Amino acid sequence: MKIKDIVNRGLVTLTNCDQEPIHIPGNIQPHGFLIGLTNDWIIDYCTENISSFLDLSHTQALGKKFETVFGGTAHNLVLNYTNSETVQDVFPLEVELMGRKFQINIHKSGDIYVLEAEPQFDKQILADVYTQTIQFVTQMNSTKSLKDLCALVAEGTREITGYDRVMIYRFDEQYNGEVYAESCRKDLEPFLGLHYPHTDIPVQARELYIRNQLRLITDINYQPVPIFTVDDKEDKNLDLSLSILRSTSPIHVQYLKNMGVGATLTISLIHHDRLWGLIACHHYSKKNISPGVRLAAKLQGQFITSQIDIRESNDENLNAKKTLQALEHLTALDLPLAEDSLDTLIQMPELLAVCNASGVSILFRNKMYKNGQVPEDNQIRSFTAQLGSKGYNEFYASRKIGEDLPELEGSSNFAGAVYHALGGSNHIIWYRPETVSEINWAGDPEKSIVKDDKGLHPRNSFNTWKQIVKGQSGIWKEYEINSAAKFAHSLHKNLIMILLSEEEEKYRLQSEVLKETNSELENINWISTHDLQEPLRKIQMITSKLLSEKRHDPEHPEIDSLERVSKSAAKMRELLQDILKYTRIKNTREAAEKIDLNLILDAAIEENSDLISECSAVIECQKLPQVNAIGFLMKQLFINIIQNSLKYASPERNPVIKITASQQPEIIKGRFKVYCSWVKFSDNGIGFDQKYADSIFKVFTRLHTQQEYSGSGIGLALCKKIMQALGGAISAEGKSGLGASITIYFPCDEQDTLI
Questions:
Q1: 755 pLDDT band (50/70/90 cuts)?
Q2: What's this protein's family per the entry (predicted)?
Q3: Judging by DSSP bridges, how do beta strands 656-661 and 668-669 pair with one another?
Q4: Global confidence as pTM
Q5: How far apart are the C-alpha atoms of 114 and 44, rounded to whole Å?
Q6: Which residue has the higher pLDDT, 289 or 536?
Q7: What gap in Å lies between CA 156 and CA 133, rounded to an integer?
Q8: Biggest alpha carbon distance in the chain?
Q9: Which pairing describes strands 626-629 and 593-596: parallel, antiparallel, or unpaired?
Q10: Residue 347 contacts residue 368 (beta carbons within 8 Å)
Q11: How deeply is 664 buried, as exposed, middle or buried, from its count of CB atoms within 10 A (0-12, 13-18, 19+)?
Q12: Average pLDDT over residues 482-492
């Protein structure tokens, strides 16, 4: 049987620092030993240092069954432990191997059971830890803020573990770390408030901190112990991501040596599945702690992560409450629906308090309203123009405007802004000025990893390195952004109401003017048309008298002129009568009643009986429906349509007028309305070109000369006005030389709608 080690000797190079395969080092720390078992319980992996703990070498163990090497009792204990529902990473298995007591942690790595054994610790220590933990829980309830809790955890963890320094390490969005709380020996220089660059803990290390939430280095100067395996596969390896004894990256070890650290304990703080921070314990000499103490320390981390949301909420609750009060005050305002109400609004302190801004501006109808520390008007317009060009048309919030809009970098009076569009070019913007801050780094963050002729190694200097940060404002909290959004939505609605109110007032005034004007026009039309008929009657009387006197002389030169004057006066009287009818038609829908169109048609035919006989016209008619209308108006409409067909009859054939109709209510969708009944008048007259289908309904519109066809040009316009007054519609279809059809549509009443 051939045996080989699996040490990853190419672990760190000049090019793979950020991708260092730290989960497969192939060796462990020497304060315990490791064996790997297959599903058949054959020892497939074993560390070289097993002989330091047992009278057994790794070569003697490899390839043999666990039961053969350690006995049936130990095998049954391990088997039961792996099959139980016990939280295995919390409570290690206590077992005797070859006469010596060990505490064994077991986890699965692929198809391999990994057993990590350490000599059993004194159980009295666990009792002391229990007492300290109870005291801590009592004290924890007296803290209110997250920072106070973290300080208490740092102190409590140091008491439980006995490390020289305990730090609560908190990450920002880019995983730069800050020492958020600390407890250390009085003779040590404090690290509280120092920042560490994200490169100190690379991506793959952060991923391992999430998977394996407790890491221990008992002696920074340890010599890694290789893991051996049966050489039966090429590139055989063992993933130690969940291992407690896993050997640490040489770069990290050197990093700790440069800090003067002798031993460490690191506990992950996981919040919402993200690495929120670490509990970093440093000791300046060798130090190992029992699994019970490790568990107690890990419990300290659980105290923090379980309280993050609550404590952060408590920390922000007071400010959030103030913004909520400001928002409620603003939204409860009963300001007049007028543009000048913005002059009052902009001066209200609650408008700044709604998101704790230093300034605010509102642009409405190209007028700028401002309060507090705000940019110049031209800067605001430039800012909004840049936002639009970058696609931020509705909403934008940033504490570093220069990052998104480099053109505005250096605008110290508004490094941060929250922008909301209010329709069109209108908007509201809250501002915060540049906040110059000083960050104390533990060494130059640009030199966390050094490459030189000696290779790759961490920095040697951890002297405080100060960085001045400009170009950013204070952070916009989520509750501030939400509060601003809610008010912007409310303001948008108010601005719409202002616009609607102004439009309503404008239309009301216009309506009053139109009403008055229409009333005056009606009076003028009635007076003028009525008064004009009297002189026309006199003209007709005088011309008639003169004609009667001159009839005895047919050749008299004045007879023709007098006849023309008489005809003109008659046409003028007819035109004035049509105008009077047209102007007197108003909105009469309220006076409409159910009428039988068959009776109306009979009356209209009777009215036109002489003309129908004279033209030898034939009228064919279906049964017509009952509709909501006004009888005398419908009679006038039918008369006009029939007269129109007879007037424009073809000289080549006798007139035929066919009248058809809907026999029951049906939905007819017009351009803007819905109709339920219709009546169509079709004739075989001279027709018209369809392009004139709309213009024939206009007042005084004629498609033929007065000499060809007589009339005032008001007949169809009168029909259209009647149908509009009833809430209906009228349309025309025609073909030159073939005839025309006029269709009238009646609006739905409640009964029709139900049908």
A1: very low
A2: In the N-terminal section; belongs to the phytochrome family.
A3: unpaired
A4: 0.55
A5: 10
A6: 289
A7: 8
A8: 162
A9: antiparallel
A10: no
A11: exposed
A12: 91
Among the listed residues 291, 262, 275, the one whose alpha carbon sits nearest the alpha carbon of residue 118: 291
Cβ neighbors of 713 (< 8 A, separation 6 or more) are 699, 700, 701, 702
Identity of residue 175:
Y
First to last CA, the chain: 95
Identity of the highest mean pLDDT range in 31-45, 146-160, 293-307:
31-45
Q: Provide CB contacts within 8 A for 569, sequence distance 6+.
A: 536, 539, 540, 543
Q: Which of 18-27, 195-204, 576-585 has the lowest mean pLDDT?
A: 576-585
Helices (H), 648-714: none
Helices 559-584/715-725 angle, 10° precision? 10
Are 681 and 641 in contact, with CB atoms under 8 Å apart? Answer: yes
413: tokens are: 């009076």
Name the pLDDT band for 559 (thresholds 50, 70, 90).
confident
Nearest to 59 by CA among 12, 140, 17, 4: 4
Counting beta carbons within 10 angstroms of the beta carbon of residue 204, is it exposed (0 to 12), middle (13 to 18) or buried (19 or more)?
middle
Query: What is the overall mean pLDDT for the chain?
Result: 81
585 closest CA partner among 628, 630, 626, 627: 630
Neighbours of 547 (CB within 10 A): 16
Residues 6+ apart with CB under 8 A from 4: 228, 229, 231, 236
Q: Does the structure show a pLDDT above 50 at 366?
A: yes
* pLDDT for position 628: 86
Q: Is 582 exposed, middle or buried (0-12, 13-18, 19+ CB in 10 A)?
A: middle
Where residue 753 falls among pLDDT bands split at 50, 70, 90?
very low
Closest by Cα among 220, 236, 216 to 228: 236
Alpha-carbon distance of 251 to 153, in angstroms, equals 29
- pLDDT tens by residue, 293-345: 888 888 888 878 887 777 766 656 767 888 888 888 888 887 777 788 888 89
DSSP state of 200: G
At 91, the amino acid letter reads F
Q: Comparing C-alpha atoms, which of 692, 697, 685 is closest to residue 658?
A: 685
513 to each of 240, 505, 523, 721, how far by Cα in Å? 89, 12, 15, 22
Three-class SS of 254-309: HHHHHHCCCEEEEEEEEECCEEEEEEEEEECCCCCCCHHHHHHHHHHHHHHHHHHH
Among the listed ranges 392-396, 402-406, 487-491, 548-552, which one has the minimum average pLDDT value? 548-552
Contact 254, 217 (CB under 8 A): no
Distances (CA, A) of 356 to 295, 352, 370, 490, 659: 43, 6, 16, 18, 76
Please give the full DSSP string across 383-402, using - where no structure is assigned.
Answer: HHHHHHHTT-SSEEEES-HH
Q: Rounded to an integer, what distance in angstroms lies between the CA atom of residue 595 and that of residue 587?
A: 18
> What confidence category does residue 15 fall into, taking pLDDT thresholds of 50, 70 and 90?
very low
Q: List Cα–Cα distances, 101 to 80, 95, 288, in angstroms.
A: 18, 6, 17
CA distances from 490 to 338, 341, 477, 479 (A): 15, 14, 20, 17
Which pLDDT score, from 0 to 100, does residue 14 have? 41
Residue range 103-119: mean pLDDT, rounded: 92
For the record, the structure tokens of 439 come out as 């960050």
Find residue 734's DSSP bridge partners: 740
Show the domains of the chain with their CATH numbers.
Answer: 3-119 (3.30.450.20), 124-223+248-316 (3.30.450.40), 330-436+470-494 (3.30.450.270), 586-754 (3.30.565.10)
Q: Considering only 17-26, 364-373, 585-594, 662-671, which range has the smallest mean pLDDT?
A: 585-594
Specify the residue for token string 């939905």: 667
Q: Other CB atoms closer than 10 Å to residue 384's CB: what's the count?
A: 20
Q: What is the pLDDT of residues 711-737, one digit of tens each?
A: 455 778 888 888 888 888 888 998 988
Instruction: For residue 262, give both structure tokens.
Output: 């002798």
- Considering only CA atoms, which of 742, 549, 508 is closest in space to residue 645? 742
